[in-house]
């Protein structure tokens, strides 16, 4: 199985289409979407419909904090601009799309793999995994050898060795990592729809479970078109600038 791992799509249709096309060329035969399908971007309907279609054909999808904010209205935990987009998104979506977001689980498992948006440790708390301490906490909370998550908008990789030692890597485009069966890994592909590491190219990863090989990719796309869509819809301009600047 070649599993394409996509997270933090953030209603960016151009970035999602580019990553899906890239993954198909590289032989992806299954897909996983680890949350935040919506928020920030201008095309929530198209993005949700795309993910719904993939789920109907066997893809994995879990809930992100933006997905939850749209389906379960709350005024806490987000800054004003993000809440503005959440309210705008909720008003745009059809009942079936809202129901799909509301039905997304916090976690999902497939074989020896776990999928979660933030941390496997108290996933409902939406903890950001930005270092070894948080990564170890997430890995210890799961019995799976591979934990795939998102929430952090830059690619990263953590390993917990069989003796308990932790290590980390900053992945590069095209980087292939050999997965040792005795270790435990936390894989964060980076954001499809709103990268924040200074590179505006979309991020995703692919795991080949037969070769036990993990690959990270950066996919150029028309981020200018996505930014113009944000502006045209009257959404906060900061979210257009993030797409252009990658921060």
TrEMBL record:
It comes from the Bacteria. GO terms for cellular component: cytoplasm. InterPro entries: Ap4A_hydrolase, Calcineurin-like_PHP_lpxH, Metallo-depent_PP-like, Pesterase_MJ0912. Residues 1-208 form the Calcineurin-like phosphoesterase domain. Transmembrane segments: none annotated. It holds the Pfam family Metallophos_2. Belongs to the metallophosphoesterase superfamily. YfcE family. This is Metallophosphoesterase. GO terms for molecular function: phosphatase activity.
């Amino acid at each position: 199985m070649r599993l394409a791992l996509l997270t933090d799509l953030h209603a960016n249709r151009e970035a999602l289409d580019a990553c899906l096309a890239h993954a198909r060329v590289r032989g992806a035969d299954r897909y996983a979407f680890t949350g935040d399908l919506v928020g920030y971007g201008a095309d929530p309907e198209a993005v949700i419909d795309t993910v719904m279609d993939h789920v109907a054909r066997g893809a994995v999808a879990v809930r992100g904090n933006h997905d939850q904010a749209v389906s379960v209205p709350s005024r806490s935990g987000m800054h004003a601009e993000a809440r503005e987009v959440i309210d705008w998104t909720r008003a745009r979506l059809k009942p079936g799309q809202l129901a799909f977001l509301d039905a997304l689980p916090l976690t999902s498992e497939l074989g020896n793999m776990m999928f979660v948006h933030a941390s496997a440790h108290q996933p409902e708390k939406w903890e950001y995994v930005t270092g070894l301490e948080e990564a170890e906490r997430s890995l210890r909370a799961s019995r799976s050898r591979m934990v795939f998550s998102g929430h952090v908008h830059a690619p990263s990789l953590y390993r917990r060795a069989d003796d308990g030692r932790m290590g980390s890597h900053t992945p590069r485009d095209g980087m292939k990592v050999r997965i040792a069966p005795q270790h435990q890994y936390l894989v964060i592909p980076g954001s499809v729809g709103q990268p924040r590491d200074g590179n505006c190219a979309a991020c995703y990863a692919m795991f080949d479970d037969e070769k036990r090989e993990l690959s990270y990719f950066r996919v150029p796309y028309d981020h200018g078109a996505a930014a113009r869509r944000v502006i045209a819809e009257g959404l906060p301009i900061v979210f257009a600038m993030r797409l252009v600047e990658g921060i």
